[in-house]
Amino acid sequence: MIGNQSVEPICVRVNDAARMIGVGRTKLYELISCGELETVKIGKATRITTASLHRLVERCRA
What we know:
With 62 residues, the chain is α+β, with helices and mostly antiparallel strands. 47% of the residues lie in helices and 19% in strands. The chain has a 3-stranded antiparallel beta sheet. It starts with 10 loop residues before the first strand and ends with a helix.
């Protein structure tokens, strides 16, 4: 990489995703179960795509 360019992660852990949008884990799991957020399973780990977090915030803003 050139310089100190930061790279936004493609997906984040559940706790990090909840913190990013300012909700608790329970609410985040509710958003996942109703299809509002996209998840990816990597082995046994569940990750939330940052793109789906951005889309959720945009939908809520509208």
